[in-house]
Design brief:
Blueprint: H1 6-37, H2 41-45, H3 59-100, H4 119-127
């Protein structure tokens, strides 16, 4: 059974924390997107139509509000990409530590590795 170093456990905890931060970012993005896509168009765009052409917003106002909506959607896509990359880095950190230093001993990620035969071992087999 191998000894567990304190840094191994710390690295695993950091990997789990980074993974949880990435998942938290993804949950935040999905919550914002859910609220955005379940709102009425008047709430999302911030425009109300009264039916009076003199009081209704013009094409420039509608276009700028729609551009702002597209910017928000693009920002959500960027945030989801960042959240998934952060979660992936947390998993990679956790798995890289767990493959090199198992918690409960054993071979870990080094299964099936054999050292190459030494010269004296080859000579023993050849003379027999």
């Amino acid at each position: 059974m191998q000894r567990i170093h304190c840094t191994d456990i710390i690295c695993r905890v950091i990997g789990l924390v980074v993974f949880c931060v990435g998942v938290g970012l993804l949950v935040t993005v999905f919550t914002i997107a859910y609220r955005l896509f379940n709102s009425s168009p008047a709430q999302v765009l911030g425009i109300t139509f009264t039916g009076n052409p003199h009081k209704d917003p013009g094409a420039a106002t509608i276009g700028s509000q729609f551009g702002w909506l597209l910017f928000r959607i693009g920002f959500l896509l960027l945030m989801s990409l960042a959240g998934s990359l952060v979660a992936q880095k947390g998993v990679n950190l956790y798995l890289s530590v767990s493959q090199s230093f198992p918690l409960l001993g054993g071979t870990g990620g080094r299964k099936g590795t054999k050292s190459p035969p030494q010269d004296n071992e080859l000579d023993d087999h050849a003379s027999a």
